[in-house]
Amino acid sequence: MSNVTFIIAAVIFVVASPVLTLLFQSKPQAGEVALVISAPWGPDTAQIAELSGVQEISPERAPLGALVTLEDTQSIDRLYSNGAWLVINGKKVLELCSS
Questions:
Q1: DSSP-H helix ranges across 24-71
Q2: Are 93 and 66 in contact (CB under 8 A)?
Q3: CB contact at 8 A, 46 and 27
Q4: Which of 19, 51, 54, 66 might form a disulfide with 82, Cβ 3.0–4.6 angstroms?
């Protein structure tokens, strides 16, 4: 039984490692690309980006996320106040998706 527990824990760790890498990185700065993630039942990321005054940079977006360019140092605060759940460094996301 202990082998099954170990295998399940290892699988969870391997599956979660890319997400943990994204969550535990430094905050994006003004002028950089950020990934904005929103709630499925709230305003979508396009509305959040528009209300926050930031520009989307990708022609397509995921159902709960969009890549944006941060205009100034207050962009992250505006994104959160307009409904974003997470604002993470988009450079790493672009690196993961292009691999």
A1: 45-52
A2: no
A3: no
A4: 51
